[in-house]
TrEMBL record:
Source species, domain of life: Bacteria
Name used for this protein in its record: NADPH2:quinone reductase
GO CC annotation, single: cytosol
Keywords: NADP, Oxidoreductase
Keyword NAD in annotation: no
Signal sequence, start to end: none
PANTHER family from the UniProt entry: QUINONE OXIDOREDUCTASE PIG3-RELATED (PTHR48106), QUINONE OXIDOREDUCTASE-RELATED (PTHR48106:SF13)
Pfam family, one: ADH_zinc_N
Organism: Oryzisolibacter propanilivorax
Keyword NADP: yes
Gene3D superfamilies on file: Medium-chain alcohol dehydrogenases, catalytic domain, NAD(P)-binding Rossmann-like Domain
One function term, GO molecular function aspect: NADPH binding
Domain Enoyl reductase (ER): 11-325
Length: 328
């Protein structure tokens, strides 16, 4: 048996209920993992509210780290006793133990502890594919400006540090002076409080009128229009989230009018579609974390039983960096 968080219908944090459920043996291509720590992500909110609908009853959570207890037929990259971490579908990581597909589960290097592993897989792989694989048509060179919204959050603080390591001039936005300072402390070249300043005007000032080559936008509805104004001609709008709500439909003509812009809507799970692609990306992430180029800031910890409060705080913009759910 395992304690797990389940929802029986979409709704508010009160729908997150602690239940006991059996954990079986892994089938072909699956592993059973016992978690030591669980990562909290904003996508868990979308799953809970139904913005990304789930079949009920549903587990929640896509990130965790722990120890492999058993492997199913055909799983060759993991053995019982291995330390492991993952960002994976289907949702269901808010639990002590689970059976799940092995494809996205990776061995965790000894240099990385369980909490760090749980706090960095979904967020770190996302920062990685955004900065390294989601590139404008004219390429990105050291010294280029990019704009990264919600830069003091989980994905954001990793992106600030990774961008610095790549030599990019990352312009951060965040929702308070403290959050802006945090982004600067973690490698952002500039920071804008987008709740009190016109971020498009400030980006134009910082870039001396030129604009940035890429906007990485996970805020969605509230930042979309002005983000397009921050781009230079042929720039790339990389949308990857909807913390403020989904981006409304728009007419493509606007992209021509604003400088032949490119738009993409990215999701991590298009980048980790095989064991090989997952491992290659995980190895690159493990390298930057183990070498200290990217530090994972775990700024909040909640026991699994307090997951409702964790969701409330995340949605109320009270968190910074990564948040983990702990297990007794
Ligand atoms: P964060 O820790 O970044 O939390 C979300 C942040 O968004 C808040 O802290 C807040 O920062 C900002 N925000 C702006 N407007 C709102 C609003 N109306 N309500 C709530 N928050 C708001 O979360 P994560 O690191 O888990 O994820 C960051 C984003 O990246 C999310 O949108 C997530 O869905 C997306 N994502 C997308 C992936 C993909 O592959 N497509 C994969 C992983 C994450 P502030 O106060 O500074 O504005």
């Amino acid at each position: 048996m395992t304690r797990a968080i389940q929802i029986c219908q979409h709704g508010g944090p009160e729908e997150l209920q602690l239940v006991d459920m059996p954990v079986g043996a892994p089938g072909p291509g699956e592993v059973r993992i016992r978690h030591h720590a669980i990562g909290l992500n904003f996508i868990d909110v979308y799953h809970r509210t139904g913005l990304y609908p789930l079949k009920m009853p549903a587990g929640i959570g896509m990130e965790a780290a722990g120890v492999i207890e058993a492997v199913g037929e055909g799983v060759t990259h993991l053995r019982p006793g291995d330390r492991a971490a993952y960002a994976s579908n289907p949702p269901g990581s808010y639990c002590e133990a689970r059976v799940m597909p092995a494809m996205n589960v990776c061995r965790l290097p000894d240099a990385i502890d369980f909490e760090t592993g749980a706090a960095m897989m979904l967020k770190g792989l996302t920062a990685q594919y955004l900065l390294l694989k989601t590139r404008p048509v004219e390429g990105l060179q050291p010294g280029d400006h990019v704009l990264f919204h919600a830069a003091a959050g989980g994905v954001g603080l990793i992106a600030c540090q990774w961008a610095r390591a790549l030599g990019l001039q990352l312009i951060a936005t965040a929702g308070s002076a403290e959050k802006c300072q945090l982004a600067l402390d973690n490698g952002a070249a500039h920071a804008i409080n987008y709740r009190s300043e016109d971020f498009a005007a400030r980006v134009k000032e910082i870039t001396e009128g030129r604009g940035v080559k890429v906007v990485y936008d996970s805020v969605g509805k509230d930042t979309w229009d002005k983000s397009l104004d921050c781009l230079r001609p042929l720039g790339l709008m990389a949308s990857f989230g909807n913390a403020s709500g989904p981006v409304p439909p728009f007419a493509p003509g606007i992209l021509g009018a604003k400088g032949s812009l490119y738009v993409t809507r990215q999701t991590l799970f298009s980048h980790i579609t095989s064991r090989a692609s997952t491992q290659a990306m995980a190895d690159a992430l493990f390298d930057v974390v183990a070498s200290g180029q990217v530090k994972i800031h775990i700024a909040q910890r909640y026991p699994l039983e307090q997951v409702q409060q964790a969701h409330r705080d995340l949605e109320a913009r009270k968190t910074t960096g990564s948040t983990i759910l702990t297990l007794a």
